[in-house]
Design a protein that fits this description.
This protein is an alpha/beta fold. The protein has helices spanning 23-32, 91-102, 122-141, 156-163, 204-212, 227-241; strands at residues 4-6, 18-22, 40-44, 49-59, 62-66, 69-72, 79-85, 106-110, 149-150, 167-171, 191-196, 216-218.
Length: 245
């Protein structure tokens, strides 16, 4: 499978059917990727279905394939949820891009106490839309069947509500427990939530609130990772612990 394009309204298809791509996705496939008749590509709906087959028509603004195979990928269990603190510059965007490529299933933007960036009003709407675009493009690049959901931004009170009753790991460089020391059987929940703080770290008050809600603090290695790399590094380790890699 050399490339993936998304058509979110694609509900179902079968071998021998034709699937047509129109609009910006088709324009990118034809004008940028230069897909031509006879080349094989895939079209998915971002919710698990991927149809693959040769291109039978390649015109400006429209691409059509003849379906040779259809795969419906189930949701991951446990689902991996990344709670990513807002960060300055593009560090939080780098984090969610890499996390998507590595297999995260849902992303929650978090306005932590020490977050320099703030999403309020229109900025919250635009910020979420920006993250959704990044996640969508990263899913296509990595040929992922399911595009992760980007939730609305939460504050620490909202985060503790998410944490309650779930298996939650908080990345903390000073934690006594290493992520690699976790018993894999303890990770087999419906959802596994990973919390990453901003550049200045998670405040003591936030750490206390998260611990009171049942979260477990874990560290990665012996150093201190940037907020842009901590989440992806932890997701990679969890993929190994869960037997996905």
């Amino acid at each position: 499978m050399s490339s993936l394009y998304l058509r979110e309204d694609l509900e179902s298809t079968g071998v021998g059917d034709s699937v047509t791509l129109r609009g910006p996705e088709a324009k990118h496939a034809v004008a940028v990727s230069r897909l031509r008749v006879g080349e094989t590509t895939s079209i998915g709906n971002g919710r698990g279905l991927i149809a693959t087959g040769p291109v039978v028509r390649s015109e400006p603004g429209e691409l059509e394939i003849r379906v040779e195979s259809v795969v419906v990928h189930p949701e991951n269990r446990p689902g991996l949820v990344l709670v990513q603190a807002l960060a300055k510059g593009d560090r939080d965007e780098l984090a969610i891009q890499a996390a998507t490529e590595l297999g995260v299933d849902r992303i929650v933007p978090w306005g932590a106490e020490r977050s320099i960036s703030r999403w309020q009003g229109d900025k919250a709407v635009k910020g979420r839309a920006r993250w959704q675009l990044i996640v969508r493009e990263a899913s296509k690049q990595s040929i992922r069947a399911r595009v992760p959901e980007v939730a609305e931004v939460v504050d620490t009170r909202g985060l503790t509500a998410i944490v309650a009753g779930r298996t939650v790991l908080v990345l903390e460089p000073s934690a006594a427990l290493a992520l690699s020391e976790l018993d894999p059987s303890a990770l087999l929940a419906e959802e596994l939530v990973l919390v990453v703080g901003p550049e200045g770290g998670i405040s003591p008050a936030e750490r206390e609130r998260l611990e009171a809600a049942g979260a477990i603090e874990v560290r990665i290695g012996s150093g201190v990772l940037r907020t842009s790399t901590a989440g992806p590094a932890a997701i990679a380790a969890l993929n190994v612990l869960l037997g996905r890699w």
